[in-house]
Amino acid sequence: MGADVTRHSGPEFDRFLRDALPGLGLDWRRHRRRGPRRRVAERMKALGLRALDQYRLFLENDPEEKNRLRALLGVTISRFLREAAVFENLALEVWPAWAGRDRAVMFSAGCAGGEEPFSLAMMWRERGPAGVRPVILAMDIDRPSLERAGQGVYAASQLREMPESWRTRYFTHRGPGWHISPAIRAMVHFYRADLRDMGPPQGLDLAMCRNMAYTYFTRPARLEVTRALARSLKPGAWLVVGAKERLETMGLFEMVRPCIYRKTTPGP
């Protein structure tokens, strides 16, 4: 019947990943870590299953469980101003061209606990063009991550790349955590969805899709996401990927800086 994942999580767990993840559009090699093993073991325990073969069969017969597994395997922890040069380049090279608009619509895909979209909001407060109303949309498939974002409480380690002046201005230290200011929290609109199933919202000026699709998805799924993002972005709008990620542009984008791309066509 297969090995108990709680006791034998090496080769047996790899075999489970190779069998189960490609059908979910996920690259199994990117999930060979302790965190995914632990979360799958906890889910199996909740279902009363001891062997990976049992859980694989359960997946095959329950489509909703596939969505739950996608969420379980997601990366749920981030930090503020991660890859800070990206935010600096947005403030220097992208946002000034938006001066004179009524609003700017920005999107954070795989927002985890809100660290990325809140970083966008704080940078906008510091450097965004005057008179332009920011609309920041943030999406994640993981419900506990979105609950954390709603609470807006973070560990000191998640603020380590932030200037001290920002920490003073935008956070309050109470108890063991740092609480983000209500004004910054109000700038971001969170919702739960799977990027591959629902797709990004339409009419975007900027999409941030970092350290998620272009790291953890299979190549066909990555190309699917790129087409969806191209459809959602306005002509000439911007797409940001992770610093270690590279976009197959498919003739839809041009690279302006490493990890920063501009849409070059009206549509896919």
Describe the structure.
Helix content is 41%, strand content 19%. Strand 9 (253-257) and strand 10 form a beta hairpin. The strands form two sheets. A seven-stranded mixed β-sheet has the order 6-2-1-7-8-10-9. A three-stranded antiparallel β-sheet has the order 3-5-4. It is an alpha/beta fold and 268 residues long. The radius of gyration is 20 Å and the shape is globular. It has two domains: 11-72, no CATH class; 84-263, Rossmann fold (3-Layer(aba) Sandwich), CATH 3.40.50.150. The protein starts with 10 loop residues before the first helix and ends in a 5-residue tail after the last strand.
| Helix-residue proportion | 40-55%
Instruction: Give the overall pLDDT as a whole number.
Output: 91
Q: How does the overall form come out from the CA principal axes?
A: globular
Assigned CATH architecture of the largest domain: 3-Layer(aba) Sandwich
What attributes does this structure have?
single chain, 268 residues, alpha/beta, Rossmann fold, 2 domains, seven-stranded mixed β-sheet, three-stranded antiparallel β-sheet, 41% helix
SSE layout and pairing:
Elements: H1 11-20, H2 34-47, H3 52-61, H4 63-72, H5 84-94, E1 103-109, H6 115-127, E2 133-140, H7 143-151, E3 153-154, H8 164-170, E4 171-174, E5 177-180, H9 182-185, E6 188-192, H10 195-198, E7 204-208, H11 213-216, H12 219-232, E8 233-240, E9 253-257, E10 260-263
Parallel strand pairs: 1-2, 1-7, 2-6, 7-8
Antiparallel strand pairs: 3-5, 4-5, 8-10, 9-10
Helix pairs in contact: 1-3, 3-4, 5-6
